[in-house]
Specification:
The structure holds two protein chains of two kinds. By secondary structure, chain A is mainly β. In chain A, 0% of the residues lie in helices and 71% in strands. The model of chain B has no long low-confidence stretch (mean pLDDT 92). Classes of the chains: A mainly beta, B mainly beta. The A-B interface holds A 4, 6, 8, 10-14, 16-23, 25, 27, 29, 32-33, 35, 71, 73-84, 86, 88, 97, 101 and B 2-12, 14-16, 18, 20, 22-28, 32, 36-37.
């Protein structure tokens, strides 16, 4: 099994196109993560053979196979970093965060 | 513009960071200095609207007015870009050189518009037309115009030039008689646009009618927009003869974007808002950018913005280039009110102590003290109601320290 990969398809949007100082700004995320797990293994394949004179035999071969399983995963906000110094609070459930403009 | 970084965690424990742009946050002192979002000017270029080419309307022998009058359906007239349409005198419509028919939804210059538009043949005014100009001091307006649409369906005029020429010189007027260049009056529809129009050489000689005339004027409209209009008071011979580059009069709720008025003459200012309310301007420049305004042929030029009987007007990032200082003619902004009340398109406003707000102005140090001067004076016979100083703030919304209100001073 190879290491799983995560692909985040998440967008975040503010609730207004602009704010006045003192307004509450709400940021909401939508979308999710897709976790892809690939299981690689080898199977033995046996091939039955028939010659022109009617005699028969067989050979075996080791064939590598892989199987990828994609699993949707929910995503939450853990924190928000704001270089302007605002303090952000993450709501219960982790889908929204708020700060004062 | 700032960004925040949103730290995410998936259910399986994977982490990811997402950068998000924060919307603009406006100051609240004394009020948000800028509208959010900041309005943008109409784009250049003709929109996809029904139109008719002037060249297809024209028949041999037509005056430009006669050709345009052949328009039978509501459509925009596309002007040729191979020379300004020319006629003699002011004999079309009501004292105009060119009359745009009411059914035209607008006029647009073909191509880049640099050689499309209207003019009047030099010195072609008739004695009878000249006699219609009232005597200065009468306060009666001049009615002569190079091009006009009156009471029409026009909603978009753009991408053309209007060039004034000397008129009445042989009648003893060394710099010519006064006239307006381009007028849209009493449009039938709200929300129209005049954009990318260059107006030059209209003759004005005073800060009051009839010598107070305009390069582009809009009367009696609701919610119209001026965008990138340039009014250059110089004539082709270089003389600074133009009156006021542009105006809205008896208008409600207009917007001006990136307009530029310069080389005005006669002390009437670079732009006038008259009996109007809630007009906002954005990034407009008044007075020449290269400091060459100087006096016009009448001895004084105006690089200022004049408000007469207005309220609710706001100017964002204006520039006032006022490189001269005369008695009663050296302030960056004038704002005067009596008790006028008007109803424009169902919108009623009163001018008593009308408000005016200026945000983040750039201005010349005209009086040597580094201050922006706003003057409220007493121009009307029925009183002066202006008791509240206009609001002038910097880009953060703080009161501008370098600002002086001069009230009721001649």
């Amino acid at each position: 099994m190879t290491a799983p990969t995560d692909t985040f398809g998440v967008t975040a949007a503010f609730d207004k196109p602009g704010y006045k100082a003192g307004d509450v700004m709400t940021l909401t995320i939508s979308g999710g993560d897709v976790r892809a797990t690939t299981d690689t293994s080898t199977v033995t394949a046996t091939l039955s053979l028939t010659a022109a004179d009617g005699s028969t035999g067989s050979v075996t071969a080791q064939v590598p196979v892989s199987k990828t399983v994609s699993t949707p995963e929910s995503v939450v906000i853990t924190s928000v970093t704001d270089t302007s110094g605002r303090t952000w609070a993450v709501a219960a459930g982790g889908l929204t965060a708020t700060a004062t403009a | 513009m700032s960004t925040v970084t949103v730290h995410l965690r998936a259910a399986d424990g994977a982490f990811h960071d997402l950068a998000v742009i924060v919307p603009p946050v406006a100051s609240v002192y004394p009020s948000p200095p800028y509208p959010v979002p900041y309005p943008t000017a109409p784009a250049k270029g003709m929109p996809d609207v029904p139109h008719a080419y002037y060249r297809d309307l024209y028949k041999a022998g037509d005056t430009p007015t006669a050709a345009m009058a052949r328009l039978t359906t509501g459509a925009m007239i596309i002007l040729p870009n191979d020379g300004l349409l020319t006629d003699a005198g002011f004999g079309q419509g009501y004292l105009s050189t060119h009359n745009i028919p009411k059914q035209a939804t607008g006029v647009w210059g073909d191509g880049d518009g640099s050689n499309a538009g209207f003019t009047v043949a030099p010195n072609s005014i008739t004695p009878a037309q000249l006699a219609t100009v009232p005597k200065q001091g009468s306060s009666q307006p001049c009615q002569l115009r190079v091009v006009k649409q009156d009471g029409g369906d026009g909603v978009l005029f753009g991408n053309f030039r209007v060039a004034g020429t000397p008129q009445g010189v042989s009648a003893g007027l060394p710099f010519g008689c006064v006239f307006h260049n381009f007028t849209v009056s009493q449009p039938n529809k709200a929300g129209g646009v005049i954009q990318d129009v260059h107006t030059s050489g209209w003759r004005g000689n005073s800060g009051a009618p009839p010598g107070e005339v305009f390069g582009v004027e809009l009367h009696g409209a609701v919610g119209w927009t001026f965008a990138r209009i340039e009014g250059d008071g110089r004539r082709a011979d270089g003389m600074v003869v133009g009156g006021v580059p542009m105006t809205m009069q008896n208008c409600y709720g207009g917007q001006w974007f990136d307009c530029y008025g310069h080389h005005s003459n006669g002390g009437a200012g670079a732009a006038v808002l008259y009996e109007s309310a809630n007009v906002r301007t954005f990034d407009c420049v008044w007075g020449s950018k290269d400091g060459t305004d100087g006096p016009g042929v009448d001895g004084k030029a105006g690089g200022f913005l004049n408000h007469e009987q207005t309220t609710g007007c706001e100017h964002y990032n204006p520039t006032f280039n006022l490189n001269h200082r005369d008695h009663n003619d050296g302030v960056h902004v004038t704002h005067s009110n009596d008790s006028l009340s008007r109803t424009i398109g169902g919108n009623t406003f009163k001018c008593d102590n009308g408000s005016l707000r200026i945000v983040n102005p750039t201005f010349t140090d005209t009086w040597g003290d580094g201050k922006l001067y706003v003057q409220s004076w007493h121009p009307y016979g029925n009183g002066d109601t202006q008791t509240t100083p206009p609001t002038v703030v910097d880009r953060s919304g703080q009161p501008l320290a370098a600002y002086k209100w001069v009230h009721n001073t001649a």
